[in-house]
Amino acid sequence: MEEQYLYPAESPTRQVIDLSGIWKFKVDHNSEGKEKDWQNGLADYCEVPVPSSFNDLFTDKDIREHVGDVWYQTEFYLAEEWENKNINLRFGSATHRAEVWLNGEKIAEHEGGYMPFGAIINEAANFGAKNTLVVVVNNELDLTTIPTGQIKEYDDGKRRLFPYFDFFNYAGIHSAVKLQILPKEYIYDITTVTDFKGDTGFVDYEIESSSHSEIKVELKDIEGKVVAQNSGAEGKLEVKNVNLWQPGEGYLYNLEVSLLSAGELIDNYRLPVGIRTVEVKGNRFLINGEPFYFKGFGKHQDSEINGRGFDPAVMIRDAELLDWIGANSVRTSHYPYDEEFYRMCDRRGVVVIDETPAVGLFDMNLNFLAAGTGKESDFFDKEIVHEQTIKNHKREIKRLMQRDKNHASVVMWCLANEPDSAQERAEEYFEEIFSYARSHDPQERPLTFTNIMTAPYGKCNVAQFADVISLNRYYGWYIIGGSELEYAQKDFEEELVGWEKEGKPIVMTEYGADTKAGIHKLPSVQWSEEYQKEYLELQHQVFDNCDSIVGEQMWNFADFQTVEGILRVNGNKKGAFTRDRQPKMAAHLLKERWENLPNNFKG
Ligand code: BDP
Q1: 471-493 b/e with 16+ CB inside 10 Å = b?
Q2: Which of 123, 317, 419, 560 has the greatest number of beta carbons closer than 10 A?
Q3: What residue's CA is closest to ligand 1, atom 11?
């Protein structure tokens, strides 16, 4: 049951077959699938596309809100001559857990909804004949899972899931499922760390492979010219006249790793590498030694119909809008996104704060909105959190760093979103989490978490561990909003005076106001497009007055789906863009501002 974290890329020695398409599908309403041997094949079924969330495809509420197992099946053939290759079956992600059978034999099991998993399937596979692949995906959450949630059971046996977070608990096979036809001896993993001095760039590399044969490493520039080379499983490459990876200019070299035996090529892998440095110095965030100002959004991987399923069309549309609006960065709130997203950000020079799925570390009494009320939560007082939740949290940090460590675009890790950091025992929990994370990133990038309004300056027990203070603040929306808006500035600025004393950079990782596109009102009222604009203008004034604020990521890039509730109108409407990716008035305001703020603003 090996996990292949290296992106499944083709090369002269590797072939990749994408199993995306229409699969068979069955909802296990009575949790009877395993007893009835569905793992051997589904007798009756309907159809779903893979990848996608299943929730918004059907017209039946009991499917949309289903809690438990759903089953998938597809068939494929393997050529006979591949019998002496390693066939790796790789899921980009399945939310939140999955078990996999090939021809009736169990080949993989995985928990954690956003990371790749799979297996070498040679033993269970049929070569030159049909293979039946069956997958059961489960979407249940509890206090110990990452993310967290709670299931409520009703008298008639039905169950509903209440996530401790503000986005719909979409589930299914969310990323592409691929077959990698790998050589017998092959490259498992590559780790790179980059640096530069003057106009010379450096790439430290380390290669893990199944063979001890000769390893050759070449670094090629964008034209394919070899600019540095070396041999052996680890070493350093030196690049004269280096082209640095910069925000907005994602220059990528190709690290071409070859396994050779007696001069013959056994395996070859090409890893895109951007040469850049990241560092926190005083209250500044430096990329390539230059102060960097984050302009952009907290996002969601969310769209109509597809839900959380990866959709390359939506990804490209979003990238074009980021470009149009003058944004330079994104936070992958509140979970890691599809690998294609990071590869695109590497190419386009989009700066990424990469977030773990640790959201909802707050006891919210069946409703995440309770968190904003300041109501007592006893999340970190529960022993199970310190015994089990923390283990799962670490597992997700390790996997995320393993998967995304080589992306030049990733400049910081966000270890959790809005944990109840005002609680005393949050301190011991996060001391362990931060020190664990520090030992797992080969590039030693800065670490952060986002702080919630109910743990303001002086009340937060976790900020001490972070390199960057990330604040989610809603002065003018959840508090001091509406007709009081003009008074929000004072309270906001007072809190910031406190945070500035920490001497660390501050990034505003969330600020926003729900806005229903098309509501216009003069003078403004909450939910109107005019109000969103006025709200943002006020926030921006606050940011400009605070020297330590080195970034603003408005909440949210686009409207997105959430659980139902009286505070949500078919989802969260804080988007600068609508869910179908058209601009609200506020988008034009952001464009005007961000096009005029240089990347080294406040430098
Ligand atoms: C913050 C959360 C985010 C919510 C947002 C909101 O981090 O997930 O969507 O507030 O209320 O609490 O819009």
Answers
A1: bbbbbbbeebbeeebeebbeebe
A2: 419
A3: 166
506-510 vs 469-472, strand pairing mode? parallel
- Write out pLDDT tens, residues 100-126: 999 999 999 999 999 999 999 999 999
Domain residue spans in the chain? 15-182, 187-273, 278-594
Specify the CATH number of the domain 187-273.
2.60.40.10
Q: Which residues are catalytic?
A: 418, 510
Residue 447, pLDDT score = 98
Give, using CA atoms, the residue closest to atom 6 of ligand 1: 166
Question: For ligand 1, atom 4, which residue shows the shortest CA distance?
Answer: 166
Tokens at 85, concatenated: 């290759």
Residue nearest to atom 1 of ligand 1 (CA): 472
How far, in whole angstroms, is CA 517 from its chain's centroid? 27
The CATH architecture annotation of domain 15-182 reads Sandwich (2.60)
User: Could you tell me which CATH class the domain 278-594 is placed in?
Assistant: alpha beta
Residue ranges for the chain with pLDDT beneath 70: 1-3, 364-377
Give 385's DSSP letter: I
Ligand 1: residue of 451, 510, 562 to mutate (most ligand atoms within 8 A of CB) is 510
Q: Which protein residues are within 6 Å of ligand 1, measured from CB? A: 165-166, 334, 417-418, 472, 510, 555, 572, 574
Neighbours of 544 (CB within 10 A): 14
Give 61-65's long-range contacts (Cβ < 8 A, gap of 24+).
62/29, 62/158, 63/27, 65/160, 65/161
Q: Which residues contact 51 (CB under 8 A, 6 or more apart)?
A: 20, 92, 172, 173, 174, 175, 176, 177, 309, 310
Position 363 scores a pLDDT of 78
* Closest atom, ligand 1, to C-alpha of 165: 8
